[in-house]
Amino acid sequence: xxxxxxxxxxxxxxxxxxxxxxxxxxxxxRSGHPGLPLGMxxxxxxxxxxxxxxDPRDPGxxxxxxxxxxxxxxxxxxxxxxHLWGFDLPIEEIRxxxxxGSRTPGHPEFGLTPGVEATSGPLGQGFGNAVGMALASRMxxxxxxxxxxxxxTHRVFALAGDGDLMEGVQSEAASLAGYxxxxxxxxxxxxxxxxxxxxxxxxxxEDVGSRFEAYGWRVxxxxxHDAESVAGxxxxxxxxxxxxxxxxxxxxxxxxxxxxxxxxxxxGEPLGPDEARATKAAFAWPEEPAFLVPDVVRAHLxxxxxxxxxxxxxxxxxxxxxxRSHPDLAALWDRHxxxxxxEDLSDRLLASLPEPKEEATRVLGGRVLQAAxxxxxxxxxxxxxxxxxxxxxxEGAGGVCxxxxxxxDYSGRNLHFGVREHAMGAIMNGLAYHGAFxxxxxxFLVFSDYMRPSIRLAALSGLRTLYIFTxxxxxxxxxxxxxxxxxxxxxLRAIPDLAVWRPxxxxxxxxxxxxxxxxxxxxxxxxxTRQKLPLVHRDADFAPEQVWLGGYAVAGSSExxxxxxLIATGSEVAPVLAARRILEAHSLRVRVVSxxxxxxxxxxxxxxxxxxxxxxxxxxxxxxxxxxxxxxxxVGRSGLVIGxxxxxxxxxxxxxxxxxxxxAERIATRILEAP
Length: 675
Fold this sequence. Notes:
The chain is α/β, with parallel strands linked by helices. Helices cover 43% and strands 13% of the residues.
């Protein structure tokens, strides 16, 4: 959008209104962070007024610019902007800041508040999300833009603080953004030199600008309290299309608060009644009424919002003509944004499996990925430098990489994240927030710890991200305990709204993929083996859709009153089936249940759950090569859990299975000796 000048006085009045909304909301809540809204209101309003492309009447407009508040503790700055610009966030919600059930929580939450593009909270995550959004924009543009019309021109702006720039995830994401030459990404850095503990000089004296230049970024500087200084820096950043830009905005935290400006007290606590009154006096603002928005401010910003709506309407007219000229691209456009799934996807994924033989589920998962990629053009992803091990490359699809001339090819579907699990998780979330792609990311299960904050935020935000975690237990072998996950399955299952699948063979792997792509409402993690697994032979009445119930009887389904029900997951299903034969030789009636996704099984109706795992009269055992936490609710007081309670050892897979009790013989012995 072309730059529009406003009078200095009117701009100052709008900025003061924005500041005082934050002061009043935080005082009303007696909780919050006034420092950033007071310090960055001027710069934020310049960005939103003159450069940010959006339409409050259509917050989901596909070609809107994205604004990510990575420093999410300053949420009242964002809520004030959304309210003043006419988004569906009335003044009553500003008054209810941080209150139960409000749309103005302490940190912005995606899907709750119109105009909030990302759930930001843990510092550095929003920065990584912005990189993912900018990457998605460039990738979509490479697929859709043509000489007669470019439906993808949007940029991504983020506001980050000192804390964001200290976190490791930011460094990883910034490195990738520089490599990918994301010239559509601009980050405003609130350089106020204050953190919770005091001056940043306690720990943070590096030359941030030089660091970002080394990453391949363009670095500019501005006075955060001088509108024209900010505007000039933004115009230079926008003009740079071959590199991301960092605009270092020197600011004063708590700007205008007579006693708290430039102090740590301005960061994370209300100003207090006396300081709030003094701050209003410093800006010549009336003490009452609270939450004042002058009519001239509302009228001015309403007019500016209408101009932004006109830009969106112009884009829509261009898109209509583009659709007529490029019907194939229009269909692809709709596939990307609607993310439609073929009804027969599970059949296609099952058909992709090779003839049954002993194989690792990571290898089978790689085969399934190829079929999924053919069916879903919006599926993209990659690995943290572990593709040869995780089998996560989409064959023949190219990668987002630099060409020989230094330019970047954004048309590929494979993302090479390098050894950067932190950034991979945050960038995946950014791709999902953007809306045009379904991202997956792969690494070893033990390294999911590096991704945990991003995984948790994906679950909180309902993002349909897919994690491929291979090398899923101590049975991976000789790499030893540093690479052998023990507590990770239990830890991931503890995250609300994250579905964790551990399939036992190709059928379960294909159906887990199909469930993740067809039915999941949030993130999904697949835990796959390094080692080859024996074939699993199921009862004759088995149907693949039973896998989607989370747990089902593999053997002994027709036995109405078994002596034991043995529940297993992944690599333990086959030895448990072999143990069943040993136990039957001892005249025990045994049912074997594969439970690849316990959380999903627990969501099934009680009659089904009881039909698979009786809750009385039958002894129950769970066998899984991981920590037993979470399984005792299934077995009751008379049951048994055979798990992995210690770190592993470096040895061949077979030796480890014998050592830790996961062979058929050792499992059968534990059952027979159970008191």
